[in-house]
Amino acid sequence: MSGVTESGAVESDVVGGGSLGRGFRWLWAAYAVSTFGTRLAFDAFPLIAVVVLDAGPGQVAALAAAGLAVGAVVAVPLGPWVEFRRKRPVMVATDLVRCAVLLSVPLAYAFGRLGFAQLLVVSVVVAAADITFRAASAACLKALVRPPDLLTANGRFEATTWTATMLGPPVGGAAIGLFGPVVTVAVDAASYLLSALGIRAIGGAEPRPRRTAAARLRAGDLLDGWRYVLASPVLRPLFLNTVLVNALIMATAPLLAVLMLGELGFAPWQYGLAFAVPCVGGLVGSRLARPLVARFGEHRVLVVSGVLRVCWPVGLAFVGPGTAGLVLVMVVEFGLIASVGVYNPVFATRRLELTPADRVARTLSAWTISGKLTTAALTAVWGLLAGLTGTRTAVALAGLLMLATPLLLPRRARTPAPAPVQPAADG
User: Fold this and answer.
1) What is the DSSP string of 59-121?
2) What is the per-residue pLDDT for 45?
3) Which partner from 178, 197, 237, 414 sits 20 to 30 angstroms from 346, CA to CA?
4) Which residues of 182-197 are buried (b: 16+ CB within 10 A; e: fewer)?
């Protein structure tokens, strides 16, 4: 059960475990297959742009930035729209959309018609569908799983993410070497089809959300997610903290590739190894999250792991050549990923606990859109900064800025009074 403290804090005093039900098992299976497909196709589009279309650095950077930024903008009206629809049909539809647009890439390649514009359009559509799916799936999870079991469920998702991150890119690279540059895109498309089938298999009745005001989507609804997050004394600092930290981590990823593969002369396999092996830390952290919360409480684990995860990245500015440099990267990444492995499921659980069932899709959509836009902007800014100050200096500045982000974490676990409980879906 969850109790409310004197300050209004929601603290979980019972942590679920074991079987979470048939519905969750199908949702988890759908998540696992699509996540492995996505990680298998990691960096497939930039590779296709370079190898097949002879694109230059500017075009490759534009492809990555446009997919994030334009896809996020396109998804703005979709969060409020999803809120008042059954979530599982929306998830199936977005899976099928991603499957269809991704399949267009190997088909166009087979007929010699693949172009840069097509890659750009596919990137935007997939990004918008990703945001929509994520918003709907969070609401679906909250309906399928009892509140005491949310942390267990989020921990399993987190462990799946890091397993796929560890195994997917090396397997994908081998597949590209054996079968060509578009094979992983086809596999990724197939994974979304399997995900749609898994979600469809959840079964049971899903009640249609009822809207209290007008049935039609209004312009004011577009900002409801941001209004709710920014008005919450607990969600607001979590929002600012996670968006900024995640964006700074992602913004330095291209710079680390330039530093290690260019200036320091690491081989591509060494670079891949440096970031694949530490993903074991994500598995460790995700397994520790539930027992740590059971012993120390949700809020304390959230804050401590939130602080620990930003203590590591500044060490990447000191990486040198050779074995010592490779070991340093692995140690820093292991510490970072293990801390993130604890933080993410606890944070995701807290966010769902504090968000009423009739606001989950709008809140998650606004959160994800903000994250993607911030990541796109900071990636561009840090690219310019590296050109002015040098790659290593830019990485160091990002690490130092992250050390200040714990100031944004909530001091106390306060929350507004809980919203009325809505009926959960069967399954």
Assistant:
1) HHHHHHHHHHHHHHHHTTTHHHHHHTS-HHHHHHHHHHHHHHHHHHHHHHHHTT---HHHHHH
2) 83
3) 197
4) bbbbbbbbbbbbbbbe
User: What confidence tier does 57 reach under pLDDT thresholds 50, 70, 90?
Assistant: low
Q: Which residues contact 68 (CB under 8 A, 6 or more apart)?
A: 127, 372, 373, 375, 376
Of 70, 147, 116, nearest to 357 (Cα)? 147
Six-digit token pair at 152?
A: 């267990």
Both tokens assigned to 92 = 């199936």
Task: For tokens 């919450």, name the residue.
Answer: 232
Contacts 24+ apart (CB under 8 A), 219-226: 221/80, 221/362, 222/76, 222/77, 222/79, 222/80, 223/366, 224/80, 224/359, 224/362, 224/366, 225/79, 225/80, 225/359, 225/362, 225/363, 225/364, 225/365, 225/366, 225/367, 226/366, 226/370
Give the Cα separation of 358 and 205 in Å (integer).
17
Nearest partner of 365 among 55, 87, 17, 49, judged by Cα: 87
- The CA-CA-CA angle for residues 349, 353, 359, to 5°, reads 110
> What pLDDT is attached to residue 220?
63
Cα–Cα distance, 245 to 306 (Å, whole number): 10
Mark out the alpha helices in 252-359 (DSSP H runs). Answer: 253-258, 268-276, 280-296, 298-308, 322-354
Length of the chain (residues)? 427
**pLDDT single digits (tens) 216-263:** 556 566 788 899 999 999 899 999 999 999 999 988 888 888 888 888
Residue 257 is predicted with a pLDDT of: 83
Rounded to whole angstroms, what are the CA distances from 304 to 71, 299, 307, 311, 386? 33, 9, 5, 11, 31
Q: For residue 112, report the phi and psi dihedrals to the nearest 5 degrees.
A: 70, 25
Residue 285, classified by CB atoms within 10 Å of its CB into exposed (0-12), middle (13-18) or buried (19+), is buried
Nearest CA-CA partner of 247 in 374, 72, 409: 374
The C-alpha atoms of residue 30 and residue 202 are separated, in whole angstroms, by 10
Strand partners, 3: 11
pTM: 0.83
